[in-house]
Amino acid sequence: MLENMPDDVSAKLRDAVGQAIGQLHGIYILAQNEVGLVLVDMHAAHERILYERLKRRLDEGGLKPQPLLVPVTLRVGQETADLVEEQAVFLRAIGLDVVRRGPAEVGLVGVPAELLDSDVESLLRDVLGDLAVGESGEATGNRVRDRIEHILGNMGCKAAIKAGRRLQLAEMNALLRDMEGTPRAGHCNHGRPSWVQVDVAALDRMFMRGQ
Questions:
Q1: Residue 91 pLDDT > 50, yes or no?
Q2: Total domain count for the chain?
Q3: N-to-C CA span, the chain
């Protein structure tokens, strides 16, 4: 039987997603556990892990930017450069240290530690796009939190492992262990399943064993 496991399975089972045995087409991690075969969409799983980490750090005292070894300068247009100045406090609240460099240029000098290895230029452009779309007056209370979480979710998606990246077994197992300690690890930030289980009985039926 092919099934998507419950989101809270990591709280109920130890090593729920098992041990990695390989990778399929640079998209899926194949693992085995006591039930049978586990297939993990590595991008979806990593996206959720990053998103929950960013939210936790925000709640524990804020997302403090880590300096980039090489700051990034972007040409963005005057309206967007103005937006960066207007939203400087908000950007720092989500861990992005962005400064204006000129009439139509901005510099990214720091990002959350979890995102240091990502394509930070593309990430910033996406965040600025989200901010531009959301520029319709000042939001307060829950609306601010919703806005922050929406942007953090997109940041997690942008920084997550991409299809085609080859991982070593140790890297795959590290991702599986992170999944087991992450809330709502059964789905990505957009609601797609991040892993499914195929039990041994289902595999036996596929190969007509015992018939």
A1: yes
A2: 2
A3: 17
